[in-house]
Specification:
CATH superfamily of the largest domain: CoaB-like
CATH architecture of the largest domain: 3-Layer(aba) Sandwich
Number of domains: 2
Distance between the termini: 40 Å
Shape: elongated
Bound molecules: cytidine-5'-triphosphate
Strand order of the largest sheet: 14-13-10-15-18-19-21-22
CATH topology of the largest domain: Rossmann fold
Number of strands: 23
Length: 424
Amino acid sequence: MKRVLLIIGGGIAAYKCLDLIRRLGERGIAVRCVMTKAAQAFVTPLAVGAVSNARVATDLLDLEGEREIGHIRLARDADLVVVAPATADLLARMAQGHADDLATAVLLATRAPVLVAPAMNPAMWSHRATRRNVALLAADSVHVIGPNAGEMAEKGEAGVGRMAEVAELVARIETLLGAGAREGGFGFLAVSDTRTARPAACSLLLAGRHVLVTSGPTHEPIDPVRYIANRSSGKQGHAIAAAAHRLGARVTLVSGPVEIADPAGVEVRHVETAREMLAAVEAALPADVAIFAAAVADWRVAAPGNGKIKKAAGAPPPALELVENPDILRAIAKRGPRRPTLVIGFAAETQDVVAQAAAKRKAKGADWIVANDVSEASGVFGADRNRVHVLTADGVEDWPDLDKSEVADALLRRAGAFLSRDTV
Ligand code: CTP
């Protein structure tokens, strides 16, 4: 039986832990709980003890408790330590290695992987001090889930700061318990290094970040049964979303119609048309990084038929009047308070790849453009491999022929490094 040590911090989201303990119990995962002093102002140790069916540990210097189980044993007995809700103060003390209460002492003593679920007011979450602390924890291989955007407990407050939902927590905990067995209990991820083609230990560079990705084609209706579309399998965009998730980010994937499965652990919004894609992207903001890998149809039919257009004997083929679709990348890259820190576009070209991509980077206001040759000779469409050039303000990088998931990993690690430079 897998064992989770749940450290409950002092926030209003602490009440969700009762449900979390139950859901984990249903999956055969044993939960022991530690509560901070502040947590006990939100839920009682009695309630937590009742649902977890175990004595709740609350005090570092509780002689009775120490004799019975001891904080070192609590730390050692867990396969995974989960901190939920992780308040700004608890994150700060973890980052500094404090050990002046039971929660922090256990966190310092444990060798098990640690997952934190931050929950706090949006202003506290976006404060540089909190970003710094989360980056420090991520560098120490602490896993981070959330926080999500939405309404806060305080009336009229909204933004990024809500604790991840219980279902999301359960899914991540199950993944980590599985991964823990494979990785020998350490929270490192093996990601191959494109430069050296050697596996490299990589911490969760994008922990605490929100990455927004578009993927796949859009379908623009001609009538209820026909549509205009671009060729796109969605493989590259989906691989990018999966890579961002592996690197610890909260990920929203806005996908057009594709034949491939939703990546695990990623919030997916399914859309059909360019206008729906733009609306879903706008609704998902704010984001730290936005990556536009979708092959959006440039035009749509001005007045799609309500009924199927029928052939009539001797009649000429119907003329379709097209109007331009919104350019999603250009709209999001426009300067403004909601512009993501890093905006990355793709350029699918059949000739003069780098020159065309450079012009696109300027015209659309993207920070980086990932350019690829989609001419028939390149065989990129639907394939698993891709050869790209990455254009930044500093110049052009020609990447070798790589698997689409390797392109995704390398791109996201580069994005993570770029953001850390910005905030730490
Ligand atoms: N893009 C977008 N919205 C559109 C068209 C394109 O967000 N309506 C994004 C794509 O996701 C990609 C980038 O813009 O990141 C470039 O897409 P591409 O199809 O190569 O360029 P276009 O703008 O369509 O230019 P053209 O077809 O003339 O080459």
